[in-house]
Amino acid sequence: GPAHLFRLAGKCFSFVESTYKYEFCPFHNVTQHEQTFRWNAYSGILGIWHEWEIDNNTFVGMWMREGDSCETKSRQTKVHLVCGKSNKLAYVSEPSTCVYSLTFETPLVCHPHSLLVYPTLTEALQRKWDEAEQLLYDELITDQGYKKILKEIFEEAGLLKATEENEVENQSKKTTLEFETVEKCSKEYKQLSEEIKKLRILLGQHGIAYKENSGE
Predict the structure, then answer these.
(1) Would you call 209 helix, strand, or coil by DSSP?
(2) CA 165 to chain CA centroid, nearest Å
(3) Domains along the sequence of the chain with CATH
(4) Host H or E run for residue 80
(5) Strands 58-65 and 43-55, how do they pair?
(6) Which three-class secondary structure state does DSSP give residue 4?
(7) How do strand 29-34 and strand 43-55 relate by DSSP bridges?
(8) Distance between CA 55 and CA 44 in Å, rounded?
(9) Who has the most CB within 10 Å: 33, 40, 85, 140?
(10) pTM value?
(11) Average pLDDT of each block of 10 consecutive residues along the chain (216 residues)?
């Protein structure tokens, strides 16, 4: 990620809300400590540094995953990085069960170019990105194909990790037949047409009437 943010490594920032104290240690973890005198007061990990959240080719936050178990899954936290006068944890919420949202203010992200992904990449990965831009411009790949190449670049750079969620998403994309190139789409269409022909012959051999679909 952005080298100038590494100066936050080794530091921790806390935020107290109600009876809970939250602590965010960039590039390390997020913890929660219940500030009560109960014998079983909760103290645990809400997530360990995992990967970046990238939107519109910009670093927008940090994902802390694989925290303490919570029913069937692990606790996880998304830390939003916003411009502020000083480094501080400003806001904490739990938008869904065991998924937390933290807002971290820092002057390190105030410059408009401070969170761009491209400058943090190696020359080889920047070239790969440039080539993808050109392919998209020449309409040799679809927007879907372009996004897939970017995701691969980010994973290769170690900014993103292929999580189970990504795998599920990829599977669903396969089932909805989204194609990276027009060529792949044509190829898939040809294969499906061949399969339909074979199925029609098979139905005919068994004396089953085939009802043709007008929207075929």
Answers:
(1) coil
(2) 9
(3) 3-106 (2.70.130.10), 121-161 (no CATH)
(4) strand 76-83
(5) antiparallel
(6) helix
(7) antiparallel
(8) 29
(9) 33
(10) 0.68
(11) 91 90 94 80 88 92 92 91 94 90 95 92 94 91 91 92 56 54 77 83 77 57
